Amino acid sequence: MQLDNGEQITNIFWVDARMILDYGHFGDVVSFDTTYKTNKENRPFGVFVGLNHHRETVIFGATLMYDETVDSFIWLFETFLEAMSKKTPKTIITDQDAAMAKAISHVMPNTYHRLCTWHMMQNALKHVNGVFRGPGGLKSILSKFINDIEEENQFLIAWNEMLEKYNA
After folding, report:
1. Nearest to residue 32, comparing CAs of 67, 59, 65?
2. Which residues pair with 48 in a beta bridge?
3. pTM of the complete model
C-alpha cells in the first residue's frame, strides 16, 4: 500500500505466489489496463495480465489506485517490479494514457511500450471516422494496416495510397 502524508491509503497493489510464479514464466509481454472504474468512488482498478503457453489469460497483479498521475504510476510500476524480483517485461501494452507512458519510460526504460489496438481504433473512430467513406469505413481500412501488413515498405506504400485516396 502507498500512504499519503496523513497516513491515509492512496494506492493499493496486490499479488500472490501464483501470480509471481506465472510472471516468472510468462511475463515477457504484459498488458496493463486501468479502464475499469466501476467502484462507487470511481477509482481506477488495473490489472497486469499476460498469456500462458496455452494462450490462456493469466493475471500477474492488480491495483486499486487513487488517481492516474505520473507519481502514482511510478509507485505502482516500481512496486510491481519489486514483487517480481525486478524482472522487467520485454513489452508492455497499455492504453494511450500520457501519465502512464511517462511512468513506464521512467521505471522501465528498456521495455518496449506499445499501445493497445482496441484503444487506438476507438480513438480513430472518435476523431477521424467521418473522413473515410465507403464499405466498412475507417474500421475496415485500419484493420488492414493492423492485421494484414507485416513489412514496413508495404505499410508505407499502402498508407500513402490510403492518404491519397481519401485526401487525408
Report:
1. 59
2. 32, 61
3. 0.80
The parts of the chain modelled with pLDDT lower than 70 are: 35-40, 132-136
- pLDDT score recorded for residue 41: 72
What is the C-alpha separation between 142 and 66, in angstroms, rounded? 35
Q: What is the DSSP letter of 98?
A: H
What secondary structure letter does DSSP report for 39?
S
Q: What share of the chain is helix, strand, coil (3-state, %, to 5)?
A: 45, 25, 30
Ordered DSSP codes for 124-164: HHHHHGGG--STTHHHHHHHIIIII--SHHHHHHHHHHHHH
* Nearest-10 Cα torsion for 60, 65, 67, 72: -60
Instruction: Kindly provide the b/e burial profile for residues 71-98, where b requires at least 16 CB atoms within 10 angstroms of the residue's own CB.
Output: ebbbbbbbbbeebbeeebbeebbbbebe
pLDDT at site 133: 61
Q: What does the block give as the cell for 141?
A: 481500412
pLDDT of 132: 67
b (16+ CB within 10 A) / e for 24-40:
eebbeebbbbbeeeeee
Burial (CB < 10 A; 0-12, 13-18, 19+), residue 50, is: buried
Q: What angle do CA 93, 23, 2 make, to 5 degrees?
A: 75
